[in-house]
User: Fold this.
Amino acid sequence: MATASIKKWWKNAIVYQIYPRSFCDSNGDGIGDIPGIISKLHYLKELGVDVIWLSPIYPSPGYDNGYDISDYKGVNPEFGTMEDMERLISRAKRMGIKIILDLAINHTSDEHEWFKKAVAGDPKYREYYYFKTQSGNKKPNNWHSFFGGPAWSKAENGDYYLHLFSNKQPDLNWHNPDVYNEIADIMRFWLDKGIAGFRCDLVNIIYKDTLDNGKRRLSLTGKEHYLNTEGCHELLKRFYKDVWSNYKSFIIGEAVMVSPEDAKLLCDEDRNELNTLFFFEHMDVDARWNKWVKRQYKPYKLVKVLDKWQNALETPSNYLENHDNIRSVNHFGNTKEYWEKSAKLLCGLNLSLRGIPFIYEGEEIGMTNGDFRGLRDIRDIESYSINQSLKKMFLGHSLRRKIILRTSRDNARTPVQWDSSENAGFTEGSPWLKINENKSYINVKRELEDENSILSFYKKMIDFRKNSKGLSEGTYRRVASPNDVYIFTRESQEERLYIYCNLSSYNKNVEFYGDRIIFGNYDEDEQILNCLKPYEYRIVASNI
Ligand code: TEU
Ligand code: CA
Assistant:
């Protein structure tokens, strides 16, 4: 019993994602860094965070903000030194906070030594990637890249290489045992330094079973050759046996395009692969055929998808926001009339679900999408690629501008708003990405002082969850409810909690179960019998 609970220390953790570039800048160069993170550890501790997931901190030319890694055993000088990193790990440890790193192992940067040696003709390193010699300009196959356009580009040696993301991110060849050994070694290197695990980027697409042409599709032609392959499962089992289980590490996979059935094969406990994973289906409820072409968001669809995943996974990972999507309050809330109320509702929802809650930097103060003036304010490589693809489809500037400003990943990457000063307390220099003008109101300092703020609500909610067996360990069951309202129970041996979430901007009549309201974002005077106000969140308890 004891070993089991030590092994699964992460099961009740509150995880906070830091996008280092945008978190806190300590030296005035406009870029967030590790000393900046260290300076905010007490803030995170106060919030109730148990685990920090750091988006990549390794050396990188930065075309994809660090998801293009050029040295897996180093620290990006923009972020600090290895000593800074060691200091962060030990300080956090002293405060009872664990650190997990982001590991992008589907691809490296094209500036990684391995790739450079490969292009220079070293036969050993050529086998680390997928190179193809072709006559003429015919690409080796018809696969698409995730960022739009073909998945093959020509290297300086004239050969084509595969890249499922940008041409600055060549895919690793996981058929080669040397690649496995290198990455296992890198994982041990960091685990020996005291980190607690990894968030493995794109982990379900690393192993390509063949390089044959794919069935032609509107986007991502070729995907049947690399999604959730048997080879991928074998690699994960090997990592689990050779590395992860020896360190009792927490391994969360980012799994693209998975159904619950695919996901279970990647993270059910008896499979000995991942501990849990990020699925995407709920983030795409308003996507038409990809996330750049949106349809109107319908809350009942979100409810349906969340319910499906709550029932499917042993330990779901719950999140409403990250560095690849727009801000959750823009996505699922109402920033016009109910900014505060809807941000609190989303907090309540995320922290009431069964599984591990993830909070993304700035979400806890209700940060909103960037207020970019035009495409010139955008830095994201994905937005640039999409712009190029849209141009090829003859879309005019104003339409492209509209699409990109609405969906760009930079919306969630604007610097964290610490106070209302000119650069929001993020930097003393000039920030790498435009800071939102609403910093004058949406900022940590003001919200710390206001007991009714979104931030105060997060603190109370985290505290509530930690002290509630029902929320942290209980079972989950959905209760029938009107459209756009999500009602479910969380039940432990002692208590049954009814969670009410009105995800709409309208009053909703509901039936209340349980006998006493114990938590929520409602206003005492405003309460109406048998009715949830817009974006109202409530927990009603009953003893068992
Ligand atoms: O994301 C993978 C991924 O699925 C997203 O890139 C997604 O396809 C994209 O955001 C669609 O808009 C991971 C990282 O989280 C992301 O930041 C990186 O750009 C990507 O991998 C490539 O390494
Ligand atoms: Ca800096």
